[in-house]
Write a structure and sequence with these properties.
With about 425 residues, the protein is α/β, with parallel strands linked by helices. About 35% of the residues lie in helices and about 15% in strands. Helix 1 runs antiparallel to helix 9 and helix 3 packs parallel to helix 4.
Length: about 425
């Protein structure tokens, strides 16, 4: 039994791990009602009652506001659109610096670029994998306008400290909480801790409607700007009587009634789905505790984690095998595990070649000479990604205790027999 599957032994696990399925009869019925109504979207890009969308879109927004205790929820067709709208609403313009995490989905940083902003990457904290007041502070310059903080993997960033810093420097804080719906920090929902928070409803997230997103804010002015950017603002401002028209170039970021109807049902399930994730993750953490070569996720005091991704740190010198070999051996045991997460964003061609909009390299042509995208810029991020992080998405609501126990058994088997792999 202790012979590793990679070396011809029998694997711990032969069945696949369960898929995460949250769509049920409630969603099916809600969609059928929309189809029967024949009004699949009721938005109009004019200053009219339809400017705010149809009944399901508005019902979703009111339900989102009630659930998260916020003044305004603005639905959009993706969290990417939501991040773009939030950066626009924040007033970011050409040459403004936007501080962002390099260890996230690319859109968190691209959102700055589309408004001519210059992403400035702050390093991550090695325990939470989020940017922190300590890593953000040295990146603040007179050009800094906004911070995009990512609650990566479902762990809320140190938002209290970041908001204090933002107040001192008059910065707008956008919380990218695509991965952390239902997580809390000191009893407050992730996503509601900055000036604007952006949730994702894409297929891979904790709750979904295919594609979609929701932005929340307590600020009336920001909410109005978000609604204008979502829906052809430039032709609405005159009739609506909006005089500050900076960045109110509009898009079509509108959600359809079908997606809103699904999202309404999904929102009702959110707390239960996150609670189950938490139970699965707790069992994983208990099972994987006390292993010198593998550090399970850290949960900071006051945090209820959202467990989108279960990210651990692997210590190759303690284990006696490389990270790649460890992951290969676990996969052979039938366990899903990834090497690293996403490449630090600044290593992507857009930053390395400084080419984004047009031929000349805008907006990087406007960047202060001190803005760097060189390898080594964020050493903790690079060490985490290229050397230490391994992660899995099995901590979800359809995972059973037996599934977790197989995962744990496979990890322990590989580590105990690591010497055989040398
Ligand atoms: C998924 C994700 C996004 C983008 O969400 P979409 O709804 O797919 O546009 C943004 N940021 C992070 C951290 C994400 O995980």
């Amino acid at each position: 039994m202790s012979k590793l599957a990679l070396l011809g032994g029998s694997p711990v696990r032969t069945r696949p791990f369960p898929d995460y399925v949250t769509i049920g009869d409630e969603e099916k019925q809600a969609v059928m009602e929309v189809l029967d109504s024949a009004a699949l979207s009721s938005f109009l890009g004019t200053w009219s009652p339809q400017f705010y969308g149809g009944t399901r879109v508005q019902a979703l927004e009111r339900a989102w506001e009630a659930h998260f205790g916020v003044k305004h929820a603005v639905s959009v067709n993706s969290a990417t659109s939501g991040l773009y709208a939030a950066v626009g609403a924040a007033g970011v313009g050409p040459g403004d610096e936007v501080i962002v995490s390099p260890y996230t989905m690319s859109a968190s940083a691209t959102a700055a670029v589309v408004y001519g902003g210059v992403p400035v990457f702050a390093d991550i904290d090695p325990e939470t994998f989020c940017i922190s007041p300590a890593t953000i502070a040295p990146r603040i310059t007179p050009r800094t306008r906004a911070i995009i903080v990512v609650d990566i993997f479902g762990h809320p960033a140190d938002m209290a400290g970041i908001m204090t810093l933002a107040r001192q420097h008059n910065l707008v804080v956008i919380e990218d909480t695509a991965q952390a719906p239902g997580a809390t920090l000191n009893g407050r929902w992730a996503g509601t801790l900055g000036h604007m928070g952006v949730y994702s409803l894409n297929y891979h997230k904790t709750i979904h409607c295919g594609e979609g997103g929701v932005i929340v804010t307590d600020d009336d002015r920001l909410a109005e700007r978000l609604q204008l950017i979502r829906n052809h603002g430039e032709v609405v401002v005159k009739d609506k009587g909006v005089t500050d028209i900076i960045n109110l170039v509009g898009f079509n970021y509108r959600m359809t009634e079908i997606e809103a109807a699904i999202a309404l049902e999904q929102l009702k399930k959110l707390d239960g789905l996150v609670a189950r994730r938490r139970a699965v993750a707790d069992r994983m953490r208990a099972g994987l505790s006390g292993l010198p070569a593998l550090c399970p996720p850290v949960v900071k005091p006051g945090v209820e984690h959202g467990w989108y991704v279960f990210a651990m740190r692997f210590n190759a010198s303690v284990a006696g095998i490389s990270r790649a070999r460890f992951v290969e051996a676990l996969r052979a045991e039938g366990v899903p595990l990834a090497v690293g997460y996403v490449e630090p964003i600044y290593l992507e061609p857009m930053y390395q070649q400084r080419i984004a909009l047009g031929r000349d390299g805008f907006p990087f042509t406007l960047a202060d000479p001190g803005v760097s995208y060189a390898r080594g810029l964020c050493p903790v991020t690079e060490r985490m990604h290229f050397e230490e992080v391994v992660c899995t998405s099995i901590c979800h609501a359809d995972t059973t205790d037996a599934d977790v126990d197989d995962f744990v058994a496979a990890v322990r088997k590989v580590l105990e027999n690591a010497a055989d792999l040398k």
